[in-house]
Write a structure and sequence with these properties.
339 residues; 2 domains; single chain
């Protein structure tokens, strides 16, 4: 077996599958289908969506407070099955890692961490339903999905074992980019967290105009309520419970975060172009610039066009791709000392 290749192909496929799960999760959330199935892990007591008149009548009798809506149940069930399949893929990755544990090129701790994350994600998936879309749980569940995707991608980079092109600039110039690249990654994770909090509290349309908010540069905002992570659980967060000023505070924080991340990424891209020194680094910088422009455009479009479903889902996917690009950049820069 050649160095890491079978494991690499499996992990690469799992990374692609994890991206699908992230996109499906965004679709489910944005369709307001998070409670499309009022129970867990089944759906109205069935392993899939009730279809016949008899099954639907049985479902509504069992859950009288949750009228059956097929258009809401299907996104939730599809997301659950994709997430479950991803969990199985990660278990297989762990079996392969255990089998190859004595090989120097086979990471073992990272697959184990992914397995533990799968268990945690399953619990948060259950709590998302049982706690009826409590924002703290929904946001943590979203971050867990992004974390699984990032760790799978990092594992694929570790298994690839492909030497990076020798830089034509002094190695020190790439090493000096490490702090900035790490800061950009941390800020992007923070912005993704803000995006999840914005979505889970239904604050995406709290400001329907740009660049002002409700016609004002500084509208009334209640940050204390908007970012109160100790709020009580229940009874049901579908549609949100916060007042207008709290939602405006969340929305404006996400906007300000977007400006900060754009500026930092823009500066990082400038420094990368200035110190590229290889075709691979230049190509990676092109990707980062393209994704940044796309993500900013999608964010603006969400507001201008009042959150079209496909734009909002694409915005989530764009955030995931930006995250993977920065993970790749930080990984590559961490290997500079090997030259």
């Amino acid at each position: 077996m050649k160095s890491g290749k079978p494991s690499y192909s499996l992990v690469l496929f799992a990374s692609f599958f994890a991206m699908c799960v992230v996109i499906l999760g965004a679709w489910t959330r944005l369709e307001d289908a998070g409670l499309g199935c009022p129970d867990w892990p089944g759906c109205y007591g069935f392993i899939t969506v009730p279809e016949t008149a008899e099954e639907i009548a049985q479902a509504e009798a069992a859950f009288p407070d949750a009228p059956f809506e097929a258009e809401k149940a299907w996104p939730e069930v599809i997301h659950r099955y994709f997430a479950g399949t991803l969990g199985l893929l990660i278990i297989i990755i762990n079996v392969v890692a255990w089998t190859n544990r004595n090989r120097a090129d086979q990471p073992f701790k990272l697959p184990l961490l992914l397995f533990m994350l799968v268990i945690a994600q399953g619990m948060f998936g259950m709590w998302t339903v049982t706690l009826k879309l409590w924002p703290q749980v929904v946001t943590t569940h979203l971050l867990g999905g992004f974390t699984k995707l990032s760790l799978l991608w990092l594992l694929s980079l570790l298994l690839n074992n492909r030497p990076w092109q020798q830089p034509t600039v002094p190695v020190s110039q790439w090493q000096n980019l490490r702090p900035l690249a790490l800061i950009a990654l941390i800020l992007l994770v923070g912005q993704i967290t803000l995006g999840g909090w914005t979505s889970s509290n239904y604050a995406a349309l709290a400001c329907p105009d740009l660049p002002t908010c409700q016609g004002r540069w500084l509208p009334p905002m209640n940050f204390a309520e908007g970012f109160n992570v100790t709020q009580e659980i229940g009874p049901n967060y579908l549609g949100g419970q916060m007042d207008g000023e709290a939602r405006v505070a969340i929305h404006m924080a996400h906007r300000m975060g977007a400006v900060l991340v754009t500026l930092v990424l823009g500066f990082l891209i400038f420094k990368l172009y200035k110190n590229a020194g290889s075709r691979e680094m230049t190509r990676l910088t092109h990707v980062l610039l393209g994704l940044l422009i796309l993500q900013v455009s999608l964010g603006i479009s969400n507001i201008v066009f009042s959150l079209p479903l496909w734009v909002a889902v694409a915005h989530n996917a764009g955030g995931a791709l930006l995250l993977l690009t920065l993970v790749t950049l930080n990984y590559r820069l961490s290997k500079v000392s090997a030259f």
